[in-house]
Structure formats: C-alpha cells, structure tokens
Structures
1.
Amino acid sequence: MAAQNLQSVPAELTPEEDAAGQAHFDRIIAEDSRIEPRDWMPAAYRKTLLRQVSQHAHSEIIGMQPEANWISRAPSLKRKAILMAKVQDEAGHGLYLYSAAETLGQSRDKMMDDLIAGKARYSSIFNYPALTWADMGAIGWLVDGAAICNQVPLCRASYGPYGRAMVRICKEESFHQRQGFEILLELSNGTPEQKQMAQDAVNRWYAPALMMFGPPDDDSPNSKQSMAWNIKRFSNDELRSRFVGMMVEQVRVLGLTLPDDQIRFNEDTRKWEHGPLDWDEFHEVLAGRGPCNAQRLERRRAAHDDGAWVREAAAAYADKQRAKQSAKQQKEYAA
Ligand SMILES: [Fe+2]
Ligand SMILES: [Fe+2]
C-alpha cells in the first residue's frame, strides 16, 4: 500500500545532467530556499535526510509508549482526556514524518520493518521507564521541551516536506510542554509527598533530556555537513545551552530544582553551562542496552502484528476503489 505512494527515485542521469542538478542544488542551498522531492539532490543529502526523518518518525511513535502506560492510571477524567490527546498527537507526528520520509524514496513498510527488526534508531530518551504520575509532568516539561528547542529551527530545514511537517509538530509540542509544566506545578503546590514525587521525576528525566540534543559538538561528526546543507541550523551544544537557560527560569516558577549544581551563565561566552553528562550511558542506551529498549520494541512488534488486519483491509479497499475508477474510465473512453 505504502509503496504506491512513493515518489520516484531519479533514474540514471548523464554526467551533464548530474552537473546541472548539482549546480541547481547548490544555488538553492546558497539562497536558503527549499529542495523539493522531485529536485535533483546529492545521494548523501538524501541519505542523511532519510536517516534523520525516519529516526524522528520512529521516536514519535515509540515515544507514545511511556505515556500510554499511564492513560488508564491518570488521576482524573480530565487528566486522562488530556494525556490521551497528547499521545494521539505523537502518533500524528509519526504519520507526518513517515510521509515526509517516503518522499525521499523509501516505503513506510521498509522503515517499519527496520524499526521492529531493531535495525533503526530512535531517540534514546524513550528507553527510560515512566515510574510515577509525576513522570507525565517531567516528560511533557523536559522531553517535549527539549524536542521544541531542537525542532523549531528544523521548521526552516532545507528539505521542504520535512520543514513543513515540523511547523505543525512544533505547534502541538508547545501544548505538550505546557501540559507537562502544569502537572508539575500542581504537584509542586500539593502535599509534601506530591512535591517530592515531582522533584524525583525531574531528577530522573533532567540528564536524559539534555542528552536528547545529541553528543557534544566535538563528537558529532555529521553535524557540520548537516549545517552546510541547511538541515541543522545550530549545533548540539548550542541548543543544549539554550534549553538549560529556559529550564533555569521555569524551574523557579515550579518551586523545584534541577539536579545540577554546576549550571551557570558564562558572561564571556554569553552561554549557559551545565555539569558533566554520562555519555557512556547515552551510548549504551543507544546501542540497545537501556532499561526499556527490549520492552519498547516488543510492544511495537505486537502493535504492528495487531494492526495487520487494518492494513490488509485498507489495501483491499484501495484496490477496489482503483478497480472501480479504472472501470469507470474505460467506460468513458468507450463512450
Ligand atoms: Fe511529537
Ligand atoms: Fe510531544
């Protein structure tokens, strides 16, 4: 079904056509305009984007799991409705992003196969467990907050379908962050036990959220090329520093603290600095050895199997519609 939606991957071109394509591509990038699916693009640009957009799509749908676990345990009907809407938004983000990735020439089926076979990556943050209700607050505030910081600049990414998908995603992410903040605010102003629960959740999600921006700049070999192609606009460390600055302000309003006593504003560089992060842990989680990696993939596989009948029914319906359409056209030609 998905394969029929694919944009065609360019056929073999002559060296002259390639050179003209490269010149056009370079001009578009220099003008800071947009590359569209049918434009010529360097193979490495296509590959980089396909990896980034598909990983991003996988993160959205795997990211539904830690929160979906709490829908049935939300403390009120209102909280349940809000959380359900939020988790549903994440499914929608996955949909926009898989669609954007398909325009680069890979079917959604293939991307999904890679994910459930454990061959594709997704954000390491979703391999941590959500232990208490306060984690819904910390995830919304810190994880969606970090996602916004990362994603707002991606609205200007040079690849059209990706940038346009990000515009809508960012609008929804800001609602997600506010709902997380509001959960923490209420807990923080509740009983001492509730406040402690909120603080504990912030303590556990703070460092993994900071690591969402990716490895430090000197250990991020692909960043430079992505910035030259106008996919990325700011380096990992730059975005991380901005995020810390935002959180420092907001945590005061929450009446909580960040578990990092080395946060400071460097007057010389005009940047926020934070304490050391455990990059060994980051690489371990990314390599599949985090607390919930196996569980997340297992759940994704089960959901994929459970949904097989829906995909089959949709494909059968699409076939029927197509047959009807072509019969109608034949009739019209004959008339
Ligand atoms: Fe999202
Ligand atoms: Fe979100």
2.
Amino acid sequence: MKQFDVIIVGGGPIGIACGLAAKTKGLSYVILEKGPIVNSLFYYPVNMQFFSSSEKLEIDGIPFISNEAKPKRNEALEYYRRIVTSNQLDIQLFEKVENVEKRDGRFTVISNKNSYSASNVIIATGFYDLPNRMNVPGENLPKTSHYYDDPHFYANQKLVVVGASNSAIDAALECWRKGAEVSLIIRGSEVGQRVKYWVRPDIINRIEEGSIKAYYNTTIQEIRETEILIDTPEGPVTLENDFVLALTGYKPNFAFLKKLGIELSDDEKKLPQYNPETMETNVDGLYLAGVICGGMETHKWFIENSRIHAKIIMNAILHENSKIVEA
Ligand SMILES: Cc1cc2nc3c(=O)[nH]c(=O)nc-3n(C[C@H](O)[C@H](O)[C@H](O)COP(=O)(O)OP(=O)(O)OC[C@H]3O[C@@H](n4cnc5c(N)ncnc54)[C@H](O)[C@@H]3O)c2cc1C
C-alpha cells in the first residue's frame, strides 16, 4: 500500500491549493478526485461568471488573468488545470474515496480503485454533489433538473425556474434571453439579497415589465408531464410546462462525514466540528478544507475566503511532525 504524509480527498480549487501547499512544504501527498480536475466547476453553467474578481480566486499568488474583472467558468477551468499541470501535482482523477479508516494512528483511505495509507487526511469534498430536494411528486421526471447547463436547450420552451439565489436568477435571465417563456417560483417574498449586485436590478426590471413571471411566497406542489401545480398566496395555480430547473441549492455529503467520525452540530446548520486555528476535526489528523466547513451554511465559505485553509493545515501538520521529531 502506498504511504503518504497527507492524502487530500477532492480536487476542487481548495483540494488543489492543499496539494500545492503540501508539495511546497516537502510533504508526500496525493489528491484523489472522483471526476475531472475541478469537477464542480466543470458542471457549472457553460456561461457562468464568478462573483469574485480573478485575483480573489488565485492560489498561492499564481496570477489568474481573465478577460473581464470577473472570470468566466472556462477561464477558471483553464487556470486551475494549468496549476495542476505546471506544478506537476499528483492528482488521481475519476477515483472516488469511499471510506477512511483510522487504526493505530494511521489512516487507510479506500477508493473505488486503490487503498492508501496516510498520517493525515484532508477532506475537501465541497457541497455540489447533493441538491436540496423539494420532495414533491414528479421531481424525478426527466424534465426536472437540479443542475443548469446551457440556455439554448430551453429556447421556445415553457420553463419554470425554482429559487431566488444567483444560480436561479442567472438561469432565468439567460433562458429568457434565448427565447424561453420563464416563470420564476420564489419561496420567499423577494429576489435573494445575495444576488450579484449588477444582476439583481436586471431581474427585477424583467419581472416588473412582465417579461418573466415571478410567483412570490409560492411553492411547487407537483410536477406533471405537461404542467406543474403551484401553491400561491391566492390559492393553487396550474401552469403549462415543458421543463423545471430546481435551483434550490446544494448540501455537503453529511453521511460521508459521519462515516469518517466527524461530529456535526445537532441543529439545522449541521456544522462539522473543527478547530479554526488548525482546521483539524475531532478526529486527530483528519482535517477539513474549503466550502465543506460551512455545513448547511453553504454561503459562508467560498474560494475567496477558504483558499487560506491549505496553508493553515500544512502549518498544523508540520507543527505536529516537529513535535514527533522532538519527542
Ligand atoms: C454557481 C456557483 C458560483 C460560484 N461563484 C463563486 C465565486 O464567484 N467566488 C467564490 O469564491 N466562490 C464561488 N462559488 C463557490 C465556490 O466556487 C465553490 O463552492 C468551490 O468550488 C469550492 O471549492 P472546494 O474545493 O471547497 O469544493 P469543490 O469545488 O466542490 O470541490 C470538491 C471536489 O471534491 C470532489 N469529491 C467529492 N466527493 C468525493 C469523493 N468521495 N472522492 C473523491 N472526490 C470527491 C468533487 O468531485 C469536487 O471536485 C460558486 C459556487 C457556485 C455553485
């Protein structure tokens, strides 16, 4: 079995930052990623533009040059891929970690392809794999999706977009501009306050002029083949419908964290337990990095403010190693 100082689970921006930091510090490491490099970003909408400016997405000060101040998905794929290739980072792709077991002070990391041994493990698995489901009849129909890709697909179609945050609003506007008839189903009373400041007026104007029909304080009751049933403050309404984009957010894989022995707060936030000074969890030698740290508070951490986790963790590991050498 191959032995490492540190194994990083997840090859998103923060997992890559951890790999680079480990390499810089002279630690042996491998990144295990279940998809392609930066898998989550790969599945973002094709025209997606980050809310962060490019320098705030940089890793280790390596310049991220984008055409506009705020980079697009394709530019981010290029940037993070170049970090991996230029620095010859050891990343094993399409390799899913299924379990991490600790015995006699060492971890065994078990993937769908291999088993590895490590003194330390970093979990940087993000939250983009599991959508927040609406739990309504018809949610599993092929016309319903929790991921949005390309507006062209929805041209001339009756599209319902569920949600009021950036993903939902971007999708509603883009699809409407490509000729979809868009209805927006919003659970609360307004378009989300976190919607990008340059996009929010756009959607509000489109709603006010009647180009996009918004239903506030409304929930979906049922999705059928050619229509959907919604519950509005004025009572139930049936809308003709071809496709539903349920952009209701995503959540970390809590079952995976629990399997690894990481404790979660027992309120609805499900915050994983870790020491913010080291990022070490309640399991010695097991660390968390990136957006997974926020539990259900998925807006708390993003690339901008979590890229620092990589250096914090490597310093903590080196500090622990120096204690072992001294002893
Ligand atoms: C539409 C959208 C726009 C955003 N815009 C911004 C922005 O402008 N600025 C910003 O700072 N942040 C932004 N974010 C947030 C941020 O981009 C992402 O959350 C970011 O990808 C987080 O990085 P991460 O490395 O922590 O997690 P992720 O990028 O999600 O990486 C986790 C990786 O772990 C892998 N993985 C999961 N489970 C396993 C397993 N069992 N075994 C192996 N691999 C596994 C996944 O495939 C994935 O590649 C945005 C998010 C979304 C959804």
3.
Amino acid sequence: MRDYKAFVKFSKPGPRYTSYPTAVEFSKDFSYEQYLQILRQQSKDLSLYFHLPFCRSACYFCGCNVIYTSKDENKERYLGYLFKELDLLEKFTNTKRKVVQMHFGGGTPTFFSANQLQRLIEKIKSIFVNFDKKAELSCEIDPRFLNEEQTKVLTENGFNRVSFGVQDFDERVQKEIHRIQSFELTQEAVNLVRTYGIKSVNMDLIYGLPLQSLKSFENTLKKGLELDPDRFAIFSYAHVPWLKKNMRKFNEKDLPGPNIKLEILEFCEHFLGENGYEMVGMDHFAKKDDELFKALKNGSLHRNFQGYTTKKGADLLGIGLTSIGEGQRHYAQNFKDMPSYENAIDNGSLPFERGILLDFDDELRKAVIMSLMANFSLDIKGVEARFGVSFFEYFRKDLELLSEYKHFYTVDKDSLKVNETGVLLIRNLAMCFDKYMKKLSEEKKVFSKTV
Ligand SMILES: C[S@@+](CC[C@H](N)C(=O)[O-])C[C@H]1O[C@@H](n2cnc3c(N)ncnc32)[C@H](O)[C@@H]1O
Ligand code: SF4
C-alpha cells in the first residue's frame, strides 16, 4: 500500500505501517471455498499476524485500522471472537505446522491488560502447538500503554522483539498530532523491556507531519538515538484525509512539502549511517549486527505483510479484524467491520472477506517488486530462470518507464542495482513494475505522494 494503490486496496495491511506497490489487486473472483482449499493444502511453516485494533484515543495522523474505546467489555468481546476464529482455523488448516514468526499489531496491543494478553497467548499456543524455539515473536507497543505486568507476560511467553510507536519527540508536533508522549516516558518503556531481556527494540518515527522541519526532525532523531534502538522505522506520513477523518484535523499548509521530506530522509540516511545504522529496505534502518542488515548484504531479505523479515517462504495467516494473510499465490483479507467479522464467526465460517489469486504475471511482478524493495537489487538471471521469461523482453515497457530514473540504478544482463540516491526513491522505481499502480496513475487516481 505504498501511499497509493495498496493503501487503498489493503487499507493498512499487517503490522508494519507502510504502503508500497504490490502488483496485485483484490478481486471478487477469489471465493471463500477457494480460500479454504488453499488453507487445507498449505504445508509450509507458519507466520501468524494478530490484529488487536483498539486504542484509547485518536492520533490525528493515524492511518491504521483502529477502534477507539474506553470500555473493557469491547476488548473482552473481541478476545472471545479471536478465540473462536482460532478454533475455526484449527478445523480448516494444519495448525501443527511449525510457527516461525508471530506478530501482535494494532491498534495498540498493549491496550489489552496483562491478563488478557496472557489468555490470548495461552489460547494461541493451545491451537498452534509447534512454536519454533527460535521463532520471532514481536509486539507493537505504545509506550503510553505499557506496564511491568504486560512486559512480564510478553517476555515469559517468549516475545523477543518489540516496536515502539514514537513518531516525533517535538512538543509542538506532538500537540498538533494529538499524541503527547514525553521523552522520559518512552525512555522508561525502553528500559523496562530491556530489563526483561528483550534484545530487539524498534522505534517508529514519521516524517512529513505538521510543523516538522529538517531542524526539528534532526532533534527528534538525535533523541531517538539516545535510546539506542536496534532498528528505526522512519515512515513517510501518508496523508489520506478522504479515507481517514482524523487527518482532516490538520491544516494542510502545516505539512512539510516533498523537498523538506526528501531532505529529512537524506539526513536520516547520513546521520544514522554515521551512527552505525544502515538503510534496510524501504523506511527501515538497522544496526550492522542486526540480522536484517546481514540478510540485505547476502540478498536474502524478504518482505511480506509482516514487514521485512529473514523468514522467507512461510505461510502468513492473518487473524482478527482486517488482517491479511499471504501465501505464495494468494492474499486473503478478513472483514474490516466488526459486525460482519462477528457474524461470519457466529455462522461457523472464517471471517474471510476477499482475496486475490495471483496469476503468472502477478507472481512475476511481485517477485521483481519485492526484491527491489527488500534488497535494492534484482537478480535478473535468477528471475529469468525461475519464471522462464526473457526479462528485457517481458518488461520492455516497464523498463522504458524505469529509464526516467536512469541516474538512480545500473543494469546489465545479469542484474539491476539501485544506487544510494535511488534507495531513497525506491517506491517510484518499484512502481514502474506495478501494472495496477500504472493503471491508477493513468486514471489520475494516484492517492498520495511517494516521498
Ligand atoms: C499500529 S501503529 C503502532 C502501535 C501503537 N498503536 C503506537 O502508535 O504506538 C504502527 C505505526 O504506524 C505508523 N503510522 C500510522 N499512521 C501512519 C501514517 N498515516 N503514515 C505513516 N505512518 C503511519 C506509526 O509510526 C505507528 O507507530
Ligand atoms: S496509538 Fe497507534 S494505532 Fe492508535 S491511533 Fe495512535 S498511531 Fe494509531
């Protein structure tokens, strides 16, 4: 959903907030029966995504699928439905497969109490009985909603990664985005999870928010660095007020323009580079000893709806409202509104709303786009061998489009490599291979900007 098509098509897939060209489009042709058939046949390792959609109050920039509530009974009710969805999944797919990855995303997963999180994890482990010892278990955390008991529950159950939502440390910006979160509060949360043994800490920041400038973001990034996260996710603010009412609170005149955003991104790359981080895939920076960085270097970094990962090839099951699952040849999304979600489960069906079956062209384009966005390079010979096509012939028109960006990559018969500046424009480069995005831009329906 990179700020355009997929944002609209998937409306916040998976846990890591990001939008990008995907080369696929949901279609009504993919039926529930076909989905069940795929589930029954699946045999790969598993990656699980749980969507925990509740938040206490609205951050005005937020583009995630969120339900604002103060009532505990809403969360209890939702937990009950998640449990039933898990029981249904046990009927329809092999849940004895090895789980190599699990992510709690939101909303704010830690808006659920320690007791609720514990019950959820126990239920999950009673259905998915084969968690790999080295499984990557991660949770998104809003530092304003984290206590010691929750941290204990997560770590005692093997969670080894957390991602903190920070966005910006500048008080003026925080006021504008309706998210007051002091540096000290974030620091306490980071210290707490580290005390309990979490080794991998990610921090989310957003550039492009109202009142931000290069100077203000420099300060934010410097403060962020003081907390020494293992990874930064630095997202470009996707402004889609026609889809998200909360964004209408902003005065658009206060939003920094594309030039400032590009300056900020360049600054992030240089500043983090000087401080031991490297850009790993779009929006992400990791320390050089991080496994994502190592994977980038050996070309094995992969991207799915969980974000960047080294766990290539697992079947992703999306569980909960709006969640998206992904297999080699399909995507499947759950209902996005609570009544339909509950209704399906009450009727004994998985809450599947729609999906996509990938045809040959979709699959080929997906492979090209994912490789560019994960590894900033493409093994052309590898693609030709895997798909039995002549790359330069098959993508003749796409390559013409790409040539607009000729200063940002090099290409020969074996490979395509994006250069340092091109990395900052990777969405634009990857978009050249996305036929659905092209269709949308031709129809002048490109939904938000790329920088
Ligand atoms: C589900 S939220 C994070 C968890 C938690 N609710 C929090 O805010 O701390 C995931 C991340 O999405 C990012 N995000 C949300 N809306 C965005 C938007 N419109 N543009 C870019 N990033 C966005 C934020 O960085 C946020 O931390
Ligand atoms: S707390 Fe996170 S999910 Fe909730 S509104 Fe704010 S950014 Fe969105």
